[in-house]
Amino acid sequence: MGILDDAKETIGEAAKQASRAVEDAVDQVKDKAEELKAEAAVKKAEAERDSVKARNEAKDELRD
Predict the structure, then answer these.
(1) pTM surpassing 0.90?
(2) How is residue 64 annotated by DSSP?
């Protein structure tokens, strides 16, 4: 029975390690997705800022 118990324990530990590896990979993918969303939000905000600036400059030129 000792060999079977050792095998079960080894398999159980391998399954735990595999589970942790999958969880780590999922976390990394989620982190990267959040990073990309944040970068997209920054780019959108910068584009809106530039648009408002250009619009205001155009209005100022029309007033002169």
Answers:
(1) no
(2) -
Cα–Cα distance measured from residue 52 to residue 48, given in angstroms and rounded to the nearest whole number: 6
Cα-Cα-Cα-Cα torsion 37, 39, 43, 49, nearest 10 degrees, comes to 100
Which DSSP helix (H) or strand (E) runs through 26? helix 2-63
Alpha carbon of 47 to those of 24, 39, 57: distances in Å? Answer: 35, 12, 15
Return the amino acid letter for 5: D
- Token pair 């398999």 is found at 11
Residue with tokens 């939000």: 41
pLDDT digits (tens, 9 = 90+) for 7-53: 999 999 999 999 999 999 999 999 999 999 999 999 999 999 999 99
